Structure prediction request, 183 residues.
Amino acid sequence: MAATERITMTMRELDRFRVIQDVADGKLQPWRAAERLGLTTRQIRRLVGQLREHGPQGLVSQRRSRPSNNRLDSMTADRALSIIRDRYADFGPTLACEKLYECHDIRLAKETVRKLMTEAGLWIPRRQRPPKVYQPRARRRSCQFAGRLRRTTNAERDTPRTSQTVFTGRPRAARASAQSSVS
Prediction:
């Protein structure tokens, strides 16, 4: 008996395998498979060839568990992080990124600087920060004059359009004493 080899596939790769297997078996036409997977018929033919030559392993991504080609050089990251620790530890990632470019000629994206600072413990993302505790404000006292402001025209002058605002009421203390003397 031949030893079976274990292959790890994502659900998307497993669905792709089933469709390509149907094309290889003749159960599904390539153009229908192309519509289903969002690929061209040429890519379907290429995947069928991969399946016939390498089996299910041929449909699995070859880039899995390999480092990105676009990754940051570790020396650049260490240099930037040491500069941030020494000079810009109290800066936010955006300002630290700008200072790295202006003063030290290190060009990094602000999100890269944010990631470096978060991993080093120099920056805590906003959602992970503890909520701020605010001192509750004392309530404002109610107005001591419980009356109305009324707009009246100035009768002393001949121009009726001029007006003034007049307070028509008594202070609250005077009103309270007047009410207590009536009862």
Observations:
- Strands lie at 148-153, 163-168.
- The two ends are 110 Å apart (CA to CA).
- Residues 11-59 form one domain.
- The chain is about 45% helix and 5% strand.
